[in-house]
Amino acid sequence: MKWNYRVVRHVEISPDQSQVNWYQIHSVYYDKHGKITAWCKEPVKLGGETIPELADVLKDMLAIVNAASIDLSGAVNNKILNATDMPVDPRKGKLKGSKLNA
Predict the structure, then answer these.
(1) How far is the C-alpha of 100 from the C-alpha of 77, rounded, in Å?
(2) Rounded CA separation 71/40 (Å)
(3) Which among 43, 42, 36 is positioned nearest to 79, based on CA atoms?
(4) 78 contacts: CB under 8 Å, gap ≥ 6
(5) How many domains does the chain have?
(6) Do the domain assignments include residue 98?
(7) Under a CB-based contact definition with an 8 Å cutoff, are residues 47 and 56 in contact?
(8) Which one of 1, 38, 62, 99 has the fewest beta carbons within 10 angstroms of its own beta carbon?
(9) Coil, helix or strand for 61?
(10) Domain that holds residue 43
């Protein structure tokens, strides 16, 4: 399974009925054709077992900030993963048993 970090646009309707947008970084998963098949419900948490590992995670995240954001609010056919379901080690930000696939 291929995955990467993506900036995801979240939309909420405020009490005054105006639309409020905010952005967070999530892990997003793709099928062999590049179509999004799942994404993590919770945004990515920063962490690493070492300072250099933490720096690598930050570099990966900064690299996608200027990429187009995605809106997953209508992604009804995608699986929304909870932390216990995701195939990514949340401490390392890497695919369990593999290297990061971009």
Answers:
(1) 25
(2) 13
(3) 36
(4) 36, 37, 38, 39, 72
(5) 1
(6) no
(7) no
(8) 99
(9) helix
(10) 2-91
